[in-house]
Write a structure and sequence with these properties.
Length: 240
């Protein structure tokens, strides 16, 4: 039977179990549950959202091979040696950076994201910790098109749905080269440009999950497009 583009309560049960027993032996004993309840539905969700994105943001694409993040953690430089993430996630990216591996695509342009974790699921969009050249391009566009950026992020409907930008890593001062009282000072201090909204367990286990994501992603499209335009990644009117 083909997987559905949403998750069952068993998916959340697996993730809760993984959080309690985060070791290779337990995971291998339950690998079938992971493949059936999480990996396959995530791939189906990516394919479904790729079709939906073509309707309102055709330059943003999804690929089961390139969009899904690995469940394995990179523990090389971490004191926490737990081998597995306790969530699943995927990334929808601009097609012009789609030939890269997922980690590079995340930093290479703005896109859409979803994370599924019991009690902590959310979706959002933007660009997280772009490399310095990309960040500088965004800062230059903030200077040149501050009104355009603020028209998006200060819009009342946008704020009601997504709140404020994530302040992770926000600088205490404006970057070197900009006056402390620069009109864009508030935004020049951000190292990332991301927003999101929480998803309930009921939403991620509902058959309406793709429709829910489509509504949020459509509302995020002007924000994502502004960031991508700053990076030289153009919008599109079709997939052709």
């Amino acid at each position: 039977m083909d997987a559905k583009p949403s998750f069952s309560p068993k998916a959340l049960t697996f993730l809760r179990g993984l959080a309690r027993h985060n070791r290779k032996e337990w995971f291998e004993d339950h690998r079938g549950d992971y493949e059936r309840e999480l990996k396959a539905p995530l791939a189906a969700l990516i394919e479904e959202m790729d079709v939906r994105l073509a309707e309102f943001a055709p330059e943003i694409v999804g690929s089961p091979k390139k969009s899904a993040f690995r469940i394995h953690r990179d523990v090389r430089f971490s004191k926490d040696k737990a081998p597995y993430k306790t969530h699943v996630a995927c990334w929808f990216f601009h097609r012009d950076v789609g030939t890269r591996i997922v980690s590079e695509a995340v930093h290479g342009g703005a896109g859409f994201y979803i994370q599924v974790k019991p009690g902590e699921s959310f979706c959002g969009g933007g660009i997280w910790m772009p490399p310095r050249p990309a960040l500088q391009k965004i800062r230059e566009c903030l200077v040149d098109d501050l009104d355009g950026f603020e028209a998006i992020v200060k819009d009342k409907a946008f704020r009601r749905r997504f709140g404020a930008l994530d302040e992770e890593g926000r600088l205490t001062r404006v970057p070197r080269g900009y006056a402390p009282d620069h009109p864009a000072a508030e935004w020049l201090r951000y190292p990332s440009f991301t927003v999101g909204t929480d998803l309930t367990d009921a939403e991620v286990t509902s058959s309406r999950l793709p429709a829910t994501l489509a509504r949020h992603y459509a509302a995020l499209t002007p924000f994502v497009r502004w960031l991508n335009s700053a990076l030289g990644l153009p919008p599109a009117s079709s997939r052709l």
